[in-house]
């Protein structure tokens, strides 16, 4: 079970590391971004070092016990970086200053781990954690130092994340809640391990049940941490995919109105459509609104006060008049106001008009009746023609 958890965690950290490197490549800098990259890199390498093959190679070619020291050193470095990442800046304390302060306990812990390892017999340096191995004070001291530092680091993360949690909302609050739970469980597990080691080394209490509880808390805490740290990335990706799907359907739904208007004013059509659904939708909205502005002198003043079906009839008359007269003269005015701010709000009233364009065309051309539903549901494909007007690709 532990090997499976380690494998899943390794894959998650590798994916997160790739994501962080891509963010840095795109120009996201700053100490917090660097600290996050260091944290993910250190934790990823820690899981690599913990594998049997890597540990055996290090113990054989470096020195006995080096894999254990390197594993906890990387964990300590990753936790120290997380403390900097989640540090809540104030007027008196900046993230840069906190980074300098975190260097001292980290260095002390790393030196302490190495000193404890020196006083640990070679036969115990690679042995598994057990109640018997803790009888050796060098071995016990190693785990006391490692667990104490992890408890300190995770505790600092809990304090900082809680400050962010109080002022957050939405999906970020959910993500921080998972992080808070994960850090809290990991901190508690580290404290419990210190107590278990002390009790076992002194012979006062047995450590078997405590070590089982520590492993369980570690697994649950790691899972909560991984989900919490990955949730913003997953939420961002899901939001992006949902927006692309929504914009693709909206662009398809706008096609009939776009075809009607640009058939009379082809000069408003931009030379390049763009590949993404968002670019296509944005272009259609711009071209439709440009066409409406140029047609506005030919559209009656009561346009804004009538139903959408009547508006479509007025637009058809304006298009015919524009063709007959070779243009339009007179003052222009904005038409079809947006429902709000943003691209979706700009497109919404135009989509409603576009659906009536389809229905009107279906009434005049019975052969087009089968295409009505395709326009009413933007998820369907767009017909190639509408009222004799060629639709674009």
TrEMBL record:
Signal peptide: none
Region (Disordered): 360-393
Keywords: Membrane, Transmembrane, Transmembrane helix
Domain DUF6545: 245-355
Membrane-crossing segments per the record: 6-22, 29-49, 69-91, 103-120, 140-162, 174-199, 219-239
UniProt-listed InterPro entries: DUF6545, MAB_1171c-like
Superkingdom classification of source: Bacteria
Name of the protein: DUF6545 domain-containing protein
Organism: Gordonia sputi NBRC 100414
């Amino acid at each position: 079970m532990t090997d499976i958890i380690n494998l899943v965690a390794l894959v998650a950290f590798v994916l997160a590391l790739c994501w962080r490197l891509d963010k840095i490549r795109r120009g996201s800098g700053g100490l917090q971004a660097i600290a996050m990259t260091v944290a993910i890199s250190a934790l990823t390498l820690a899981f690599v070092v913990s594998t049997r093959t890597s540990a055996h190679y290090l113990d054989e070619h470096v020195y006995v016990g080096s894999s254990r020291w390197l594993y906890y050193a990387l964990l300590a470095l990753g936790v120290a970086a997380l403390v900097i990442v989640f540090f809540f800046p104030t007027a008196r304390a900046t993230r840069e200053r906190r980074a300098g302060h975190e260097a001292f306990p980290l260095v002390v812990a790393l030196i302490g781990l190495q000193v404890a390892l020196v006083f640990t017999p070679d036969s115990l340096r690679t042995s598994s954690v057990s109640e018997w191995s803790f009888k050796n004070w060098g071995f016990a001291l190693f785990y006391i130092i490692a667990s104490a530092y992890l408890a300190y680091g995770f505790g600092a993360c809990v304090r900082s994340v809680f400050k962010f949690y109080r002022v957050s909302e939405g999906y970020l609050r959910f993500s921080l809640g998972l992080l808070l739970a994960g850090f809290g469980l990991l901190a508690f597990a580290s404290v419990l391990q210190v107590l278990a080691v002390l009790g076992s080394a002194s012979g006062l209490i047995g450590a078997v049940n405590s070590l089982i509880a520590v492993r369980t808390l570690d697994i649950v805490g790691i899972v909560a941490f991984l989900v919490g740290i990955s949730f913003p990335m997953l939420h961002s990706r899901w939001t992006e995919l949902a927006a692309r799907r929504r914009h693709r359907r909206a662009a398809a739904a706008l096609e009939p109105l776009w075809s009607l208007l640009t058939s009379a004013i082809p000069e408003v059509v931009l030379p390049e459509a763009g590949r993404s659904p968002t670019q296509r939708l944005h272009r259609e909205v711009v071209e439709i609104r440009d066409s409406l502005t140029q047609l506005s002198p030919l559209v009656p003043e009561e346009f804004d006060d009538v139903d959408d079906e009547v508006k479509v009839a007025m637009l058809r008359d304006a298009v015919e008049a524009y063709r007959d007269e070779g243009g339009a003269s007179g003052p222009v005015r904005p038409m079809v106001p947006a429902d709000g701010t943003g691209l979706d709000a700009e497109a919404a009233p135009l989509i409603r008009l576009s659906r009536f364009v389809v229905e009107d065309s279906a009434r005049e051309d019975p052969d087009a009746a089968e295409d009505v539903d395709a326009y009413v549901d933007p998820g369907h494909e767009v017909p190639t023609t509408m009222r004799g007007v060629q639709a674009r690709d």
